[in-house]
Amino acid sequence: MKKTNRIIVGFAATLLIYVTACSSEEGVNRVVIKKPGETITVIDDTGKEAGEPTVSVDKMKRYEKMEITDWLNEETVIVSKENTSLDKMKLEELSDSYPRSLYTYNLTTKQYELLKEQANAFLGVASLSADKSHLLYSEFSLGDPVYHVMDLNTLDSFGIMGDPIGGAMSAHWSDDATIIGAAYSGGAYTASSTGSIAPLVGLTEEALVIAQKMKDRVYYTTNSNESLMVLDLGTKVKASMNLDHVYGVFPSPDGNQMLVLQANGSKNVLILCDADGGNQKTIAEGTELNGVSWSPDQRMIAYSEKADVNGVTVKGLYIHDLLTDKSTQLAVDIENASTSWSPSSKALVYAEWNGSQYNSTIVHLTYSLQK
Questions:
Q1: Most buried of 17, 238, 244, 321 (most Cβ within 10 A)?
Q2: Cα–Cα distance between 340 and 228 in angstroms, integer?
Q3: Residue 223: what are its φ and ψ, rounded to 5°?
């Protein structure tokens, strides 16, 4: 059973900060922080050993009508939002919407800087290379997205499309700052930040769904088999990871572990394991699991979860602390949110779609020792 700390977010109009150590629940400490516009109540377990590391919420701030997808630094984020300087979308199904363009946004000055705009297109799902020099993003209107790579120094970009791969079905940064994904022509491809695109030798005959690279291994699933497989790029040997019904793979920052999303009957499971599939451990389980991301320091795992608890549907955003092996709920009524961590691992942003627009919330965390 997953151990969970609960964080409940509400609203208040006055400035008041106080801490209490009493509760109607035996064996529970309660911390309440009230600030203008928000109230955060942290209900934490007692009985912690002296010196045990703890994580608490410092503050949360909501950003309306923008999708924050990544962090350039602690003060600057990558944003996708409506661009009202362009004409509305031409397709009848989208004619009430403006195109979405890419910007940087300074959290201190509240200033936007345009990175890329394009008429009649939604630009988004943008992620930075490890050295922050290039941006991988998608262009879409209706149908499948087209992936592009932008040089942030020149703002020039190229599409991951055409021969020899027929286009990219998916695209992810790998640990060596190249891009890997499933190709429409079959198999996997790699792309460099300078525009070189090539099929991945050893997987060209497979129709892939998942393709993720970690060090000298490529993890994949196929259209005909949802079991996770691994290709050793040095020996070209393929092997099973003994994980069935996989729908997501998330390599760790150091390339030694990974998170795997697995559909197991009526529930989904988030599993942590080593690169070879060993030391498997369940992090979370529910009817739906999404929004998975690693903190850069590899201590925290973020995810959104939907679960049935005693006949009631519970939806929320969580972080799991690998040091304490505990999960903390950061927000309620959150479903299918995307998440991204700041470079320091001290802030997490989650973005959610409400049916008409994206809204984002940044959660600032404090790390300390429980005395």
A1: 321
A2: 25
A3: -60, -35
pLDDT, tens only, 232-287 = 999 999 999 999 999 999 999 999 999 999 998 889 999 999 999 999 999 999 99
Cα(330)–Cα(42) distance, integer angstroms: 9
pLDDT higher than threshold 60 for residue 34? no
- 319-334 pLDDT tens trace: 999 999 999 999 999 9
- Report the C-alpha gap between 103 and 135 in whole angstroms: 11
pLDDT value, residue 321: 96
Single-letter code of the amino acid located at 49: E
pLDDT: which is higher, 20 or 268: 268
Residue 3, pLDDT > 70, answer no
Q: HEC profile for the chain?
A: CCCEEEEEEECCCCCEECCCCCCCCCCEEEEEEEECCEEEEEEEECCCCCCEEEEEEEEEEEECCCEEEEECCCCEEEEEEECCCCCCCCCHHHCCCCCEEEEEEECCCCCEEEEECCCCCEEEEEEECCCCCEEEEEEECCCCCEEEEEECCCCCEEECCCCCCCCECCCEECCCCCEEEEECCCCEEEECCCCCEEECCCCCCCCEEEEEEECCEEEEEECCCCCCEEEECCCCCEEECCCCCEEEEEECCCCCEEEEEEEECCEEEEEEEECCCCCCEEEEEECEEEEEEECCCCCEEEEEEEEEECCEEEEEEEEEECCCCEEEEEEECCCCCEEEECCCCCEEEEEEECCCCEEEEEEEEEEEEEC
Q: Long-range contacts: 255-260, Cβ < 8 Å, 24+?
A: 255/175, 255/214, 255/215, 257/298, 258/212, 258/214, 258/219, 259/283, 259/292, 259/294, 259/301, 260/228
- Label residue 267 exposed, middle or buried (CB < 10 Å: 0-12, 13-18, 19+): middle
Radius of gyration from C-alpha coordinates of the chain: 22
Please report the pLDDT score of residue 2 as a whole number.
53
